[in-house]
Design a protein that fits this description.
With 303 residues, the protein is mostly helical. The protein has 15 helices and two strands.
């Protein structure tokens, strides 16, 4: 019996299953308590622990009503920020996914000088911290590109769409290196005979990508889409810097940070706001879970 088989047999015992169950309970108990608190009245949240709910159950939707649609300055007013997060996140997932798929196909199946060096450079870019690019990007947006006094690109002036375009551009740039690396590894493992047969039949590169490559690497596409969606949705730094902190363009993470920083004693709003921010990512993950697991375990097609 090899080492992998021995490890697998140990993990399949009743003791290992019991330990996993205990870890799962310890992990989910605080989250369950937070969820329960979000439905409790304000006076009970501030006076008793969430576990006392089982002795005198009392639930209300007032916390969610206030945090989403409250009109006072002290309320969350999260609904508008929720829409901003959706507007920011969806293009920030689709843009790098589209560009990375085309780039990965070119690096995997097109022969041109310097291809390996380009791929090596893209791989190396994954270790560059995004914080290093924030100031150059801000300068790029606000001042354009000027070389030796010659303006190559003017400053961006897009009106009301400026904050959204800036944050889309930033998230796309930061995600491309990982996306290309991930998709390239999947595409490079596809059978070469399949691609050659398509070329012999007269298929163009666009047809090959659309009808052959993309269906076969769907698990990889879903894996990156989930990672990118969660990253952008939960991001605070990029959204705060490039989208600003106003209700017209700021994502929900900015508003949650403001609520925690200035109204940390309003626990009922913070608990409700936390779960409002979780709903959409949870739906996305559950709907794409089977592709996500296949994308993590598979490396293309085999056999």
């Amino acid at each position: 019996m090899n080492a992998a088989s021995r490890v697998r047999s140990k993990l399949a015992t009743r003791t290992a299953s019991l330990i996993a169950l205990i870890i799962a309970l310890l992990w989910t108990t605080p989250t369950f308590g937070l969820l329960l608190s979000s439905f409790r009245p304000e006076d009970e949240i501030k006076s008793t622990g969430w576990w006392t709910f089982f002795g005198s159950p009392n639930l209300t939707l007032e916390n969610y009503q206030e945090v989403l649609f409250g009109s006072s300055s002290s309320s969350g007013q999260l609904f508008r920020f929720l829409i901003n997060s959706v507007v920011i996140t969806v293009p920030s997932v689709l843009f790098p996914l589209a560009f990375a798929a085309l780039a990965a196909y070119a690096l995997a199946w097109l022969k041109f000088p310097g291809r390996d060096w380009i791929y090596l450079g893209i791989f190396a870019l994954q270790i560059v911290p995004l914080q290093m690019a924030l100031v150059p990007l801000l300068s790029f947006f606000s001042q354009g590109v000027t070389v030796f006094g010659v303006t190559l690109l003017p400053a961006w002036e897009l009106g009301e769409m400026q904050p959204f375009v800036q944050v889309w551009f930033a998230h796309t740039c930061f995600a491309l290196s990982f996306a290309i690396f991930l998709l390239h590894n999947f595409m490079a493992e596809l059978p070469g005979d399949l691609i050659e047969a398509a070329r012999v039949d007269g298929a163009t590169h666009g047809q090959i990508i659309r009808r052959i490559i993309l269906p076969l690497v769907a698990p990889a596409l879903a894996t990156f889409a989930i990672f990118q969606f969660l990253w952008v949705w939960n991001d605070l730094l990029v959204g705060l810097i490039f989208a600003g902190g106003t209700a017209e363009s700021a994502p929900m993470t900015v508003r949650l940070a403001q609520m925690a920083g200035t109204r940390g004693d309003e626990w009922q709003r913070l608990t409700a706001g936390a779960f409002v921010s979780v709903i959409i990512p949870l739906v996305v993950f559950l709907s794409m879970q089977r592709y996500f697991v296949r994308g993590l375990l598979a490396g293309g097609i085999k056999g």
